[in-house]
Structures are given as C-alpha cells and as structure tokens.
Amino acid sequence: MIVYLHIMASLRTEVLSIYRTILRTARTWKSLSGSQQETQEEMKYIREEAGALFRKNKHLTDEEQIRQCIREAETRIELAHHYGIPYPRPVNLPPMGLGGPQRKGKKLQERLRHQAKPVYLHSHEEIEK
User: Fold this and answer.
1) Any idea where the Complex 1 LYR protein domain is (predicted)?
2) C-alpha pair distances (Å), 92 with each of 75, 99, 113
3) Cα atoms found within 13 Å of the Cα of residue 99, Cβ hemisphere only
4) DSSP label of 84
5) Is residue 45 part of a domain?
6) Whole-prediction pTM value?
7) What is the pLDDT of residues 55-77, one digit of tens each?
8) CB neighbours of 5 closer than 8 A, spacing ≥ 6?
9) CA distances (Å), origin 24, targets 5, 44, 68, 94, 129
10) Alpha-carbon dihedral of residues 37, 80, 126, 14, nearest 10 degrees?
C-alpha cells in the first residue's frame, strides 16, 4: 500500500510538472507567421487543449494509463517545439488502410489504422467526439 501511494505521488508530481511546462509554453509561444493574432489564437488553443485533456483524465487511477498520457503530453510538447505548431500533425494512412467497395478485410483495415496512430493523437480524437 505504501509503495502504491509513493508511485501515485510520484506520478502526480510528474503530471503537475508537465502541466506547468505546457502552461509555460503557452505563455511564451510565438506563431511561425509572426502575426500577433495567430500567436494569440495558438496560445489560447494550447491552454484550452491542455485544460480539456487534463480535466478529462483527472480521474485516471491505472498507473499504465497515466504513464501513457504522460508520454503523449511529452510527445506533443516536443512536436510543438520542433515544428513550431501547437496542433497535432496529420497522419498518413498505412497501405490497405482504406477498404474497397467489397468491405472485405474490415478488421484488418481497422487494425492497421489503429497501429498507425501515433501516441500524440490518442486523446485528441477522443475529445473531438
């Protein structure tokens, strides 16, 4: 029981640290275009997206799910800094990811699409639904 509480406290510290990093990133964000309006829109997007995802996941208790969310947040932060855009990057479908008119192999197509989905998009599509 003590080990579990220690792990959860450690995860909580890590989650709060990531949240602070995201808010700091939003505060210092500069749009690639240099436009003040776009910069403000992107800063707002970062804050709102972070708030929505953290609120959605605040009741998670499974250690592995929490670690997956942490990995996703870290990946999205790295991608935002690297590419200079706060929005998730689009994903290309794998070969045979779309079905033909026969609809044969639908399970295979769904599995291929699921396997091709990058870690930084898991929460993004759940929020949109």
Assistant:
1) 14-78
2) 18, 15, 9
3) 11
4) S
5) yes
6) 0.72
7) 999 999 899 999 999 999 999 99
8) none
9) 28, 12, 22, 35, 28
10) -120
